[in-house]
Amino acid sequence: MTRLPASSTPLAGNRRHSGFVLVAVLWIMAALAALASIYSVYTIRTASESHVLDDRVQAEASIRSGLEMTAYRELAAPDKAKPSQGRFTLRLGRTSVAVWFHSEAARIDLNAAQADLLTGLFVAVGVDPAQARTFADRVVGWRTKPDAGGGSKEAALYAQEAIAYPPRQAPFDNPLELTLLPGMPQSVVERVLPFVTVFSGRPQVDALSAEPTVLAALPGMTPEILNQFLRARAKDPNNRDALLQLLGPAKTHALADNSAKVFRVGVQVDFDRGRTVRAEVVFGLKNGGDDPYDLLYWRDDFDDPTPLAWNFGR
Q1: N or C: which terminus of the chain carries fewer CB neighbours within 10 A?
Q2: SS3 annotation, 44-56
Q3: Do residues 38 and 46 make contact, with C-beta atoms less than 8 angstroms apart?
Q4: Are residues 256 and 241 in contact, defined by beta-carbon separation less than 8 angstroms?
């Protein structure tokens, strides 16, 4: 009897077929595992993104609640008792909300302050007096319109120093424009940012809520006057007329009234599970209409995670 070669037997064929099926099954399992991994990553990312979106919606609602409560406190208070600063807390949904607010007039307005007040601010943050005057001149030059003939000494200075842009020759839109001024160090800009604004519109500052650094910048201010004023303000902050008189010659650059309409609000939103979101907002009160205020500036941790200038918790 003639024997068939081993490779031609049905058993060998079945083995080859089984081996092919096994490889195919292993390949399919590997593909399914890869698909499962991709789907798992997608699911995690989708859940994470949905969670972030939910946090943002809740945080914005909490921030706006803080703004509304601040506006209500200002609008509801009698004219002679309107607070120029304050703090409070509230609870909204799954968040605890802490709010601090100050009159924006407590800051020095880059578009309205006179050169001597600006000089005082630069000196107050540690700049040499001669250099401080130069910086103040650059601030005034940036915001000053050209003369009737279209000429501008400040524009000529920029051209002389080969700066690729001219001065704005219009009001500051943002305090960060200070970084565009010739010779202005970034370190100096960072030091003055917490004490300046473009929203007050007043050449004076609100002495009732201004920081000591701002008060120290007032022309005519001395350490003795400043210390006496700060002690009196802490003891009796509502004695407006007496406090203003304590400023002596510095009072010409100060206000002690309650007519401020623009406020800077710092809001800290603490979620129950531990996350914290902060925001800094400036709004202007309205005399009527459906909305009690107009938003002038809004910055929060979602849009810009860099540290906020607002001193939270003070």
Answers
A1: N
A2: HHHHHHHHHHHHH
A3: no
A4: yes
First to last CA, the chain: 105
Structure tokens at 153: 């000494």
Amino acid letter at 103? S
Report the chain's mean pLDDT, rounded to a whole number. Answer: 84
Q: CA-CA-CA-CA torsion for 187, 189, 190, 193, nearest 10 degrees?
A: 160
The residues that bridge with 206 in the sheet, in sequence order, are 255
The string of pLDDT tens digits covering residues 32-43 is 555 555 555 544
Better pLDDT: 26 or 178:
178
Tell me how far apart the alpha carbons of residues 276 and 81 are, in angstroms, rounded to a whole number.
Answer: 33
Residue 268: strand pairing partners: 98, 278
Residue 295 pLDDT: 94
200-211 pLDDT per residue, tens = 999 999 999 999
Q: How far apart are CA 18 and CA 158, in angstroms?
A: 83
- The string of DSSP letters for the chain reads -PPPPGGGSHHHHHHHHHHHHHHHHHHHHHHHHHHHHHHHHHHHHHHHHHHHHHHHHHHHHHHHHHHHHHHHHHHHS-GGG--SEEEEEEEETTEEEEEEEEEGGGSEETTT--HHHHHHHHHHTT--HHHHHHHHHHHHHHHPPP-TTS--HHHHHHHHTT-SS----S--S-GGGGGGSTT--HHHHHHHGGGEESS---SSEETTT--HHHHHTSTT--HHHHHHHHHHHHH-TT-HHHHHHHTGGGGGGEE--S---EEEEEEEEEETTS-EEEEEEEEEE-SSSSSSEEEEEEEETTT--SPPSS-TT-
Strands 95-103 and 85-92: antiparallel
**How does pLDDT run across 181-190, given as a tens digit for each residue?**
999 999 999 9
Question: How many residues comprise the chain?
Answer: 314
Cα–Cα distances in Å, from 133 out to 3, 64, 140, 184? 112, 40, 11, 12
